[in-house]
Write a structure and sequence with these properties.
CATH architecture of the largest domain: 2-Layer Sandwich
Strand order of the largest sheet: 5-4-3-6-10
Structural class: alpha/beta
Number of helices: 14
Number of domains: 3
Shape: globular
CATH class of the largest domain: Alpha Beta
Bound molecules: zinc ion
CATH topology of the largest domain: Nucleotidyltransferase, domain 5
Number of strands: 15
Distance between the termini: 10 Å
Order of helices and strands: HHHEEEEEHEEEEHEHEEEHHHHEHHEHH
Radius of gyration: 22 Å
Helix content: 25-40%
Length: 395
């Protein structure tokens, strides 16, 4: 079925605009969509007719207001029960599999430990798990698969270099496409997180044509990462995603790159947990999410100090990132910011300071502790959202 690159932008073709508006607020009417998007009534009519034909929208004659003057206006909504997409987030420690409808509503999920076997075997294991999970949704037609992961992506072949997993040109798109028999999109996960904020955002109905704004997305959990959104489009460098992993912080932590004090090795959950184990604060652990045990100890002086130290490094990094990129908005995403109470508090305070000094708004991700899930979900939907009619001709 082939691999299709991610399309992380606010498309302005009428079918895309109408589907986005209907996804944000369903059921709706042609008049409401026309008013919300600025598209003419005739353009909305044509787009709705084409989307109804493709089965992406459905009419709700039962909701027609009786007694309306003139031609009856039958409300419509996204056809949310006919199709399903599957989003897969392959993390350094865990892999999550999510089923979603065309609106981007998550219908269910499953989790497995990311296999540490050879890359093709690991991918086949993930593909088998996804196929098994999807049996729960056998009444729906599976139309697309999206994979979001760390490392560097070759988007047209769907291959992934992921040093943490030992993957080199791992054939993610090919293995999943063959197992699931649908088109596959593979994307860098921090870019996908930024895309989820953009495409599932608070102003999804507007076309954003001519708007100019920039948003920097700063991610931290097992890894740290960045993504940049400019004028309604996620920047995806062909040379690999933006990186802040080896940003110098002045900490003494030795990094595998040979230097000391790089941000990722100083601030990631895995490295903070390792230091907590070394300090005897928590027992030896193999699961990086055990960092949550450290959060519950934050009244303990040593535990608190460890977390304050990390929060300060991240707050300093945030300040420098604002200086370098000078974006209109900054979004902080990932469990370090949303689950660690100390980092949350420090970064919010630093965000307020930056906002009052420079006017840059700094907010936490709207997806809280589910940023990885929504990164996978938006990857499975991006080609459909960008050009719904072209995408539907593939199934
Ligand atoms: Zn380094």
């Amino acid at each position: 079925m082939g691999t299709v690159p991610a399309r992380f932008f606010l498309a302005d073709n009428p079918a895309a605009v109408v589907l986005r508006a209907a996804s944000a607020s369903s059921p709706t009417t042609r008049d409401v969509v026309s008013a919300a998007t600025g598209l003419s009534a005739a353009t909305v009519n044509r787009a709705v007719a084409a989307l109804l034909d493709a089965g992406l929208l459905r009419e709700r004659a039962d909701l027609t207001v009786p007694g309306a003057v003139g031609r009856p206006r039958i409300p419509f909504e996204v056809n949310q029960s006919r199709f399903v997409t599957v989003g897969i987030h392959i993390g350094a420690s865990k892999t999550r599999i999510l089923a979603t409808d065309l609106r981007g509503q998550i219908l269910g999920g499953a989790e497995l430990v990311t296999p540490k076997s050879a890359q093709r075997v690991a991918l086949e294991t993930i593909a088998v798990s996804a196929a098994q999970f999807l049996r729960r949704f056998s009444r729906r037609t599976l139309v697309w698969a999206g994979v979001a992961t760390g490392g560097r992506i070759e988007p047209t072949r769907g291959e992934v270099d992921h040093p943490r997993l030992g993957w080199q040109a791992a054939p993610v798109g090919a293995v999943l496409g063959q197992a699931l028999n649908v088109p596959v999109t593979v994307a860098a996960h921090v870019e996908a997180m930024a895309a989820a904020e953009l495409l599932f955002g608070s102003r999804p109905a507007t076309r954003h044509v001519g708007t100019t704004s920039s948003t920097l997305y700063f991610y931290s959990r097992q890894t740290v990462g960045l993504a940049l959104v400019v004028d309604g489009k996620v920047y995806s460098p062909s040379n690999g995603p933006l990186s802040i992993a080896h940003f110098p912080t002045g900490s003494g932590q030795p990094c595998e790159c040979g230097r000391k004090g790089c941000l990722e090795v100083s601030a990631s959950d895995a490295s903070v947990l390792r230091r907590a184990v070394e300090a005897g604060l928590v027992t030896r652990s193999v699961d990086p999410s055990d960092i949550e045990r450290l959060y519950r100890l934050s009244s303990n002086h040593s535990a608190h100090e460890l977390l304050v130290n990390r929060a300060q490094l991240l707050a300093e990094a945030l300040t420098i990132l604002r200086d370098v990129f000078n974006p209109d908005h900054i979004i902080l995403g990932g469990q370090t910011f949303t689950a660690d109470p100390v980092a949350h508090q420090y970064l919010r305070a630093q965000g307020h300071a930056l906002q009052s000094q420079f006017g840059t708004t700094v907010v936490m991700s709207r997806f809280g502790n589910r940023v990885q899930d929504f990164a996978a979900t938006v990857t499975s939907l991006s080609a459909i959202r960008a050009d719904p009619l072209a995408a539907s001709r593939r199934w």
